[in-house]
Please model this.
Amino acid sequence: MSRRDPGRHGHNGRVPGALRTPEIAELRVLCAAADLGSLGRAAQRLRLSQPAVSRRIAGLEALAGTPLLDRTPRGVALTAAGRRLYEEARPLLEHAAIVEQTVAELARATQPVRVAASHSAAEALVGAALSGVSGEQLSVELVVLNSERVRMRVAVGKADVGVAAGDPDSAPYPGTRQETLCEDEVVVAVPLRHPWARVGSVDLREFLATPMVLRDPRSAARATVDALLAARHLDSAPPLAELSTPHAARREALERGAPLMLSRWLLEDRRDFEIVAVEGLRFRRAYILVLPARGTPSPAVEAVVERLRARAAGCADAASASAAAGASSGNGARR
Model:
């Protein structure tokens, strides 16, 4: 049996370089203990148990082959060897934090942006805003819910972006922040064969006495209507039908030849309905962008938000132009 050459293998028979590399977690514990002067306080800062902190220090000292901390009843302090390791470990930990942040950002960039939208917002804004995102290498998951659940989904972290309908002056849902994307209102519209289509308006008494096709009571559109009527102490006729989606409401109104109430944005460009003004009433609301109250949006989330803002601004400009053209046409007709 040949004897190992101490010059090649070291006195303990270990090949130089065969030592395991210290773990970042071990170095983090050493630096925290040195900074705080206590293993207990290090455990609290790092959210570890004190036995786990002690095991990591012991493992690091075994690896170094020398004590790194002096233990006293008043706490711990670095030994000379510990000081040398601390000075090398501190910049390493700073770089490790940067690497961890970069990895987290890369992971977020490759994950789909989770968008939650109300039924009317999805049809009026979000669908068109997100069309063609694959060309920008964006991945998006869209969930359609009522406005209240959109806010809840963003608040609990199940959506990165939300678009809801409601009162723009209302307080944000807890855990979220919001901004107004564009103004909207819930309007009355009738199929073209309905008598109101020929006159373009209806007095308040007839409006209140007429059963209509409405959204379901949990929808933001219905909440907008009910809130204004309640504030004015007005009672309306029972609904002719209550539908869960704008598409179903339009279909029901067409089949029955009956009035319905929906977002103006879902009716203005349609040729099968005529929007009818109601004497003395306007059911104003807005489409609202909902974001988490804390944290910085990823670049992918920012790209989606900018698409939503651009779509809303474009639609608002088109609506203003249409209203101006209508007013001009009306003035010409009266001359």
